[in-house]
UniProtKB/TrEMBL annotation:
Residues 1-48 are annotated as: Disordered. WD repeats lie at residues 222-264. Residues 1-12 have a biased composition (Polar residues). It comes from Acanthoscelides obtectus. The keyword Nucleotide-binding does not apply. Pfam families: WD40. This is Uncharacterized protein. Residues 39-48 have a biased composition (Acidic residues). InterPro entries: WD40/YVTN_repeat-like_dom_sf (IPR015943), WD40_repeat_CS (IPR019775), WD40_repeat_dom_sf (IPR036322), WD40_rpt (IPR001680). Coiled coil: none annotated. Keywords: Repeat, WD repeat.
Length: 410
């Protein structure tokens, strides 16, 4: 399912060859790779049997096409009942929630991948719509763990779930397709965004919509979005500032004290959660759904492009990306389907999974774990990074087609 087609609050509120077989001459004594097609010499084989064998071989070949690059450990992969569009770890990282195309949020134990909770109610069942985003309030001393997930739905619903009790605590109904939600890092506030060009700013405690961030009536200024909005990020230091991105090829800078966007970056086409701000607040990361300059770093203060992080091999169009440490970013995309960990010091790929079964629409950073080297791996070949500390990279959970993956670097 295409995330772009399905990604809502109260002002308008009521929501991808077989490669040609490389033939080698057996007369020269050279072997050749297994054929994609089975042998066709059995005279008793029916057309149905042949078709079944071909399908089985195709399925096997496709599965084996997924490759792992770098010192990457596949911790788990799990087939879910429906296509998954988004995922999120809970506050303590012991659960991993997956938002399905059927509107159901399924919560799995992150260690065993056993299904622990199913978040659905009569509202979800009666108004089926894909889950477009899952978040929870950031944990802090002021706002402790709440054991809640908040999901957005393509029909405009924003629903907060207490997952331990399978209970929906509140529902906000927006008259639009809602594509995502982002919490303020320090206050009980959040924004939602969708297909109506607007960003809604809420107080979570009162459930009141306090602001609508939208462009002015002057089309020449472009001081707001002119198409669907797919990404947002609050500034890590300034309480009043946030940035957003979408289909209109801009990253808009907002100050909640100003009526409209105060400035913008152009040439960045967003189709998912492809925007982030560094912990220092000085750099912006953009992961864009476009043919060139997909992954880039920008100076927050000036809006100037610092660097474009060129792909090593696969020039994937990106849906999502964010900083996971000060030295590494993670990104995911399609054409080909991949998830990639990039070293900002070398600007090269530290690790990647390529040719996954589906586009990587979403990922989340989990817990930083002690990196035990698997017994099957030769410890002598493991090098120590001089500049970038890969041991600080957390476990990554991500979605691809119906699968929910977890990976770690070793």
């Amino acid at each position: 399912m295409n995330l772009n087609d399905s990604r809502g609050t109260p002002s308008d509120a009521t929501i991808e060859g077989p490669g040609a077989e490389h033939m080698k001459s057996q007369a020269l004594g050279k072997s050749r790779p297994p054929s994609l097609l089975p042998d066709l010499e059995d005279p008793d084989e029916t057309e149905q049997d042949l078709e079944a064998r071909i399908r089985a071989q195709l399925k096997k070949t496709a599965k084996e096409n997924t490759t792992i690059e770098g010192k990457l450990l596949l911790v788990s992969q799990f087939e879910t009942p429906r296509e998954v569009l988004c995922c999120k770890y809970n506050e303590e990282f012991d659960y991993l929630a997956a938002g399905g195309a059927d509107g159901v949020i399924r919560v799995y134990n992150s260690n065993t991948m056993e299904e622990s909770f199913i978040l659905s109610d009569s509202d979800v069942k009666d108004n089926r719509a894909p889950v477009t985003c899952i978040k929870h309030r950031p944990v802090s001393k002021t706002y402790p763990i709440t054991n809640c997930f908040t999901g957005t739905y393509a029909n405009g619903c924003v629903k907060c779930w207490s997952y331990n009790f399978n209970q929906c605590l509140y529902t906000i109904r927006e008259k639009r397709q809602t594509f995502g939600i982002v919490y303020h890092p320090r206050f009980p506030k959040f924004v939602t965004f969708g297909d109506d060009l607007k960003v809604y700013f809420y107080d979570e405690e009162s459930k009141v919509q306090e602001r609508i961030l939208a462009a002015s009536d002057n089309p020449d200024k472009h001081d707001g979005h002119m198409s669907r909005v797919f990404a947002a990020c609050f500034h890590t230091k300034n309480n009043y500032e946030l940035i957003t991105g979408g289909w209109d090829n801009t990253v808009q800078f907002w100050d909640l004290r100003q009526p409209y966007a105060v400035r913008k970056i152009t040439g960045v086409h967003m189709a998912g959660e492809g925007i982030d701000i560094s912990v220092s607040g000085k750099e912006i990361l953009t992961a864009a759904f476009q043919k060139a300059n997909q992954l880039a770093l920008w100076d927050y203060g000036s809006g100037r492009c610092i660097s474009v992080l060129e792909p090593d091999v696969y020039n994937s169009k990106l849906y999502c990306g964010k900083f996971v440490t000060k030295d590494f970013v993670v990104t995911g995309g399609t054409d080909p389907n991949l998830v990639r960990i990039v070293d900002l010091q070398t600007t090269g790929t530290a690790a990647a999974m390529n040719f996954l079964p589906g586009a990587v629409y979403s990922f989340d950073a989990g817990q930083v774990r002690k990196k035990d080297v698997p017994s099957t791996i030769n410890k002598d070949i493991i090098s120590t990074r001089a500049k970038s500390d890969a041991s600080s990279i957390p476990r990554i959970g991500f979605v691809s087609s119906r699968r929910l993956y977890q990976i770690e670097l070793y």
